[in-house]
Amino acid sequence: MIADEIQSGLARSGKMLACDWEGVRPDVVILGKALGGGVIPVSAVLADKDVMLCIRPGEHGSITLFMSKLTALLLMFVISTFGGNPLASAVAIASLDVIQEEKLAERSAHLGEELLCQLVKIKEEFPNYVKEVRGRGLFTAVEFNSKSLFPVSAYDICLKMKERGVLAKPTHDTIVRLTPPLCMSRDEVKEGSKVLHDVLELDLPNMQKAKPKDSPTTATICDRCGRNLYDPSDRAL
């Protein structure tokens, strides 16, 4: 079993690895993003030596091996051009130390509960727009009702949130993903949630009136997964 923890790992979900929520121990774990601590791009593969040593030096790019203090697993960087980069390795170790010393997994879990609570309140206030809120730790998402949102998309919502000072990422035209910094405060969680609330209350009605119904940004089929995003018979809504 291989667990892709590039986005969800390293305290993002409220545990060190997202698969910890399920109580499973993968044979291989892939890490990235947060491993670089925002300083340098770096990724890594973790596994027990029985698995890792099946790949010998020279068979898959260049390899750097060291024992991870975090998991007691053998940590291997499998890359080519930047293989064995000493700066990247030092940054990765420092990032793991910070996550442990500052208890960022626990912090993510506590702040995630507050964020999800705020998002649930938004869903209750705007039930026609918000279809579902979900998440673990500070890895959350708001899914909108495509028919009620039309012709506005999640991308448009994110642009308005940006204007109000909060960065979020759209997914599949109907989902806004919220992955705030693990070091943020409880007050900042509430402030960020209020931005989404204000966009739905103050900006969205005007956006729906101003945006053409036949706008090319409101395609009915997602160009990535092929999912039907809008029912053409209900476009007037």
UniProtKB/TrEMBL annotation:
GO BP terms in the entry: L-arginine catabolic process to L-glutamate; L-arginine catabolic process to proline via ornithine; L-proline biosynthetic process
For this record, an example GO cellular component is:
cytoplasm
Molecular function terms from GO? identical protein binding; ornithine aminotransferase activity; pyridoxal phosphate binding
Q: Which UniProt keywords apply?
A: Aminotransferase, Pyridoxal phosphate, Transferase
Name the cofactor(s) required for activity, per the record.
pyridoxal 5'-phosphate
Pathway(s) this gene product operates in, as recorded in its UniProt entry? Amino-acid biosynthesis; L-proline biosynthesis; L-glutamate 5-semialdehyde from L-ornithine: step 1/1
Name the record gives this protein: Ornithine aminotransferase
What species does this protein belong to?
Gossypium laxum
Q: What is the lineage of its organism?
A: Eukaryota, Viridiplantae, Streptophyta, Embryophyta, Tracheophyta
